[in-house]
Write a structure and sequence with these properties.
single chain, 374 residues, alpha/beta, Rossmann fold, 2 domains, 7-stranded parallel beta sheet, 6-stranded parallel beta sheet, 14 helices, globular, binds ligand GMT
Amino acid sequence: MKIGIVLYPTYGGSGVVATELGKSLAGKGHEIHFITYSQPVRLGSFRENIFYHEVRVSNYPLFEYEPYETVLASEMVDVVKHEGLDILHVHYAIPHASAAFMARQILKSQGINIPFVTTLHGTDITLVGKDPAFEPVITFCLNESDAVTAVSESLKNDTYKHFSTTREIKVIPNFIPVQHKVSVMNWDLRRRYAPDDEPILCHISNFRKVKRVQDVLRIFSKVNELKNARLLLVGDGPERYALEESCRELNLCDRVVFLGKVRDTQQVLELADLFLLPSETESFGLAALEAMAVGVPVISSNTGGIPEVNVHGVTGFLSNVGDVGDMAENALHILRDEETLNMFRKNALERVKEFDIEKIVGRYEELYHEVLNK
Ligand code: GMT
């Protein structure tokens, strides 16, 4: 099949999922055309069957707000027509689904049929999408998509709760390439961050309000009071400066490292003993799955789709949003001895097999066939 994948090219999970899906489909012989405004961060180097089409955004002075949706729809029309695409798959509803609808209508007027699949990722439904400023367009696009998928049962239920749609939503969970060989610890690197072999806690996110990064620091502070530890923070975003300020206030600067944005987060995760994800809401929690994939247990909130990934008492622990005391206690429980930590590590590695890319990508292929045979 020739598949157009529309995505956000940035560090966010939806872009990562879309890019990894495209790479995997290309590996299976499909021709993949990524359509977005800059090179997706996880795309990597040149590969067979992969093409990238950049959407050029106009900066004509009249436009106070650049009309991205319009140029995106035009690019989709162009790529479908000239590359002969069979199907479009848009990741994150806003504004990709409405642009796909527009492209489909334009192509229809030219005698070309192009179905589109919409994958909902989270905030396009739970935060932004349900805002009345977006809601009518999102509802319309959900109803008009040739198929709709959500990355967790929780997100599917949220969609029905917030939008008046009865259309079928298939749950296809996010995935991870499962490693078949155990990764070897880079001890030299680890010692640079934890010179006295203290446990390393880690958090990766876009540092938006929804991630509750202040809770990350408060959990770490409580753990560190009872057991010397280190915290590695990966990512950047609006809450970073306030968090740096809090680190200074709490006198934790020598124990906390802000690494900023990192392309290959696996290298950092491999150094860690625990992953912290205390989010306010999270449709899935891809970052937690990525941590588990290298054997790192997860201390998280019990919100949204996280419980579908992190199993309480098995791969880590779940607590109510904001209950940093409980999260710190759980972290200390896992870190109390080598044996306990290793048991959680092993369980995490076992659990991620459920989300093996090899199992999940086939479900998208089946869905494309279903849509094309309709
Ligand atoms: O808004 C965000 O947090 C970013 C968004 C994205 O586009 O990456 O993340 C969402 O999609 C990820 C991939 O499906 C999920 O793993 C995240 O849980 C989800 N974020 C939220 O629901 C807050």
